[in-house]
Q: What sequence folds into this?
């Protein structure tokens, strides 16, 4: 399993994106996002996505260098169409504009529609928190066969519809960033398990007949199985709301087959940004939030080896460790990356050399 330094991995991924034809800023943003996801422990949304991006680019479902088109700009409301362009770029741009608007209006609500994969949604929650804002994101995935069954269902009706809520840092307390898929696990984690030859835990998957299974390959064979929603009826309800708010409310592409299937990825995202100054007041809110986090974290750990954490902390711990030790990439993902580098014209040897593994 190659372990590569994050800085050189980013250079290699950026070179692959540039070989596809992305301009410098686009290649930089996407490479930065993917490597940051690896650094933060979310390999499912890291550089292992590149082979899929290359396939979508070849199939014409990922557009390069596509500017964001503003469909509505009306007081606190903003709606933008990404036109199938790189989602990491589009989502960062609309997040920045929503934050700017919330500085003027106290609260701002935006809809991003038809973006190619926006990746780790926490990236956008973190950007809002860094700007001192509270944020809530609901995201759906359209354009693709469903992968997640509703509670009590035997086939898939959603994708992994993530939700993110972020609260800014207070004094020496880092931001609290809750960011998860509404399936029990993200599809990328099932892919990583299959690539590593591991079985999944019980309760995460059903096969194509609706029977429980621990075999990750059911998600990548035809007919496919499905993943189960987190939290049974509660997670299923959240997934449905991500569909209704992330796509139906924003005017984006819902998962209904009638809205189209091009086998690409169409992320649609509702973002709500709130300036805490307009509610409790920034100072009192952040002081109380920090005190609440302290109170919660003071719970004695049931297992002394596993202290109580708060959302955002596992990502910071992973980043500290992987920044130092490098990013391990499993053999299957590595060979897929090499094939993708060949397909872009960069070449497998050059990719390995740039990544620091050659
Ligand atoms: P996950 O199950 O690892 O949960 C992550 C969340 O739980 C984070 O907020 C983390 O800080 C928190 N957390 C983890 N362990 C904790 C602990 N012990 N105590 C307290 N909090 C803890 O994440 P996931 O559901 O596998 O999602 C992974 C990523 O996939 C997310 O970044 C999500 O945005 C992304 N995703 C994107 C899409 C898309 O279409 N773009 C779809 C699905 C998921």
A:
């Amino acid at each position: 399993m190659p372990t590569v330094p994050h800085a050189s991995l980013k250079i290699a991924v950026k070179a692959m994106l540039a070989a596809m034809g992305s301009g410098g800023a686009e290649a930089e943003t996407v490479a930065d996002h993917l490597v940051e996801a690896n650094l933060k422990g979310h390999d499912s949304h890291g550089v292992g996505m590149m082979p899929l991006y290359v396939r979508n680019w070849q199939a014409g479902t990922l557009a390069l260098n596509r500017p964001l088109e503003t469909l509505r700009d009306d007081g606190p409301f903003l709606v933008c169409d990404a036109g199938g362009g790189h989602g990491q770029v589009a989502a960062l741009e609309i997040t920045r504009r929503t934050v700017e608007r919330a500085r003027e209006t106290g609260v701002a609500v935006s809809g991003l529609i038809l973006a190619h994969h926006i990746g780790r949604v926490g990236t956008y929650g973190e950007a809002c928190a860094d700007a001192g804002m509270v944020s809530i994101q609901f995201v759906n995935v359209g354009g693709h066969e469903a992968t997640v069954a509703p509670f009590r269902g035997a086939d898939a009706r959603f994708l992994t519809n993530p939700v993110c809520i972020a609260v800014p840092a207070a004094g020496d307390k880092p931001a609290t960033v809750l960011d998860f898929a509404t399936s029990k696990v993200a599809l990328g984690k099932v892919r990583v398990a299959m690539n590593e030859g591991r079985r999944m835990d019980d309760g995460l998957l059903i096969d194509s007949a609706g029977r429980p299974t621990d075999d990750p390959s059911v998600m990548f064979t035809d007919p496919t199985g499905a993943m189960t929603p987190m939290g049974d009826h509660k997670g299923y309800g959240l997934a449905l709301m991500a569909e209704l708010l992330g796509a139906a409310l924003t005017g984006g592409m819902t998962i209904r087959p009638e809205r189209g299937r091009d086998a690409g990825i169409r992320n649609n995202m509702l973002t709500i940004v709130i300036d805490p100054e307009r509610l409790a007041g920034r100072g009192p809110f952040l002081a109380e939030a920090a005190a609440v986090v302290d109170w919660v974290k003071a719970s004695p750990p049931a297992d002394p080896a596993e202290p109580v954490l708060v959302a955002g902390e596992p990502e910071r711990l992973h980043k500290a460790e992987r920044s130092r030790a490098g990013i391990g990439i499993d053999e299957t993902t590595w060979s897929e990356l090499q094939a993708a580098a060949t397909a872009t014209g960069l070449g497998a040897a050059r990719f390995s050399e740039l990544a620091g593994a050659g």
